Amino acid sequence: MAKKQFKKYTSTDKGVTAKKHLGQHFLKDESVAIDIAECLSYEGYNQVLEIGPGTGVLTKHVLRKGIKVTALELDSESVVYLKHSFPLEHNKIVSPESFQVVETDFLQKDLKEIYDDRPFAIIGNFPYNISTQIVFKTLEYRDQIPEFGGMFQKEVAQRICADHGSKTYGILSVLTQAYYNADYLFTVGPEVFDPPPRVHSGVLLLTRKSDYDQLSCSFEKLRQVVKLAFQQRRKTLRNSLKSMDLPDEMRDRELFSLRPEQISVQDFVDLTTEIEALG
């Protein structure tokens, strides 16, 4: 069987080509890279994980904060470039004490292997095709990740930051905002990328809530309730949570006459707490 050929886009001046199957769009605008790097506070941790650094346009501005950066990159061309040709400034090569590249898939990587139980922030120009999965994995490591900043497809960034009552409010909004304050920072046009995507992008910042570990319900149960609710988002909770076999006195409440997009994050947390207590 012939080996499958993946489409490559125009080569960058660094000899690294963006690959369609990896969802790559290399950031080329330095001012945008600086703005993304500036969104983190760099307080309360001394290490940053960058996902999909590509040619290091964002990486160098994070390194200039004097913080250790671990870059996870799946593209072997980018890995070779970053390991052997990545300058910080004045032709100095970045030291292994402040920068390392790991050739791996972020979604498959056990982050404990890199950080043990130490805190770290996440930053990146995230591949659009796995961006929501990146957020869900971040939530699994919420005890170690006080900050998360980066670029998404605009609609995904807006969905993460959406408030209840919005048509874009959904599973991603509720689960993220239960543990993090979500702020949509700014919009970026296609022209700052090589190759340019067909959509606009949005940069957001997630800052972990001070009481994130004091939620009255478990993450697993909250995820179950929220997913069930939004799987049938046009229906009321009374219908969408029918499979949970809840008591009639609970199902008769006014809350159960609402559709999931009308229910606040705190109301979802409170409801899940009650359901979890039922055993």
From TrEMBL:
Its domain of life?
Bacteria
Q: InterPro entries in the record, alphabetically?
A: KsgA/Erm, rRNA_Ade_diMease-like_C, rRNA_Ade_Mease_Trfase_CS, rRNA_Ade_methylase_Trfase_N, rRNA_adenine_dimethylase, SAM-dependent_MTases_sf
Question: Entry's PROSITE patterns?
Answer: RRNA_A_DIMETH (PS01131), SAM_RNA_A_N6_MT (PS51689)
| Compartments, record wording | Cytoplasm
Which Enzyme Commission numbers does its entry carry?
A: 2.1.1.182
Q: Which UniProt keywords apply?
A: Cytoplasm, Methyltransferase, RNA-binding, rRNA processing, S-adenosyl-L-methionine, Transferase
One CC-aspect GO term: cytosol
Name the predominant localization: cytoplasm
Q: Which residues bind S-adenosyl-L-methionine?
A: 25, 27, 52, 73, 105, 125
Q: Name one GO molecular function term.
A: RNA binding
Tell me which residues make up the Ribosomal RNA adenine methylase transferase N-terminal domain: 32-210
| One Pfam short name | RrnaAD
Reactions catalysed, semicolon-separated, are: adenosine(1518)/adenosine(1519) in 16S rRNA + 4 S-adenosyl-L-methionine = N(6)-dimethyladenosine(1518)/N(6)-dimethyladenosine(1519) in 16S rRNA + 4 S-adenosyl-L-homocysteine + 4 H(+)
- Report the family membership: Belongs to the class I-like SAM-binding methyltransferase superfamily. rRNA adenine N(6)-methyltransferase family. RsmA subfamily.
Stated role: Specifically dimethylates two adjacent adenosines (A1518 and A1519) in the loop of a conserved hairpin near the 3'-end of 16S rRNA in the 30S particle. May play a critical role in biogenesis of 30S subunits.
Q: What HAMAP family has UniProt attached to this entry?
A: 16SrRNA_methyltr_A
Q: What is this protein called?
A: Ribosomal RNA small subunit methyltransferase A
* Species this protein is from: Nonlabens marinus S1-08
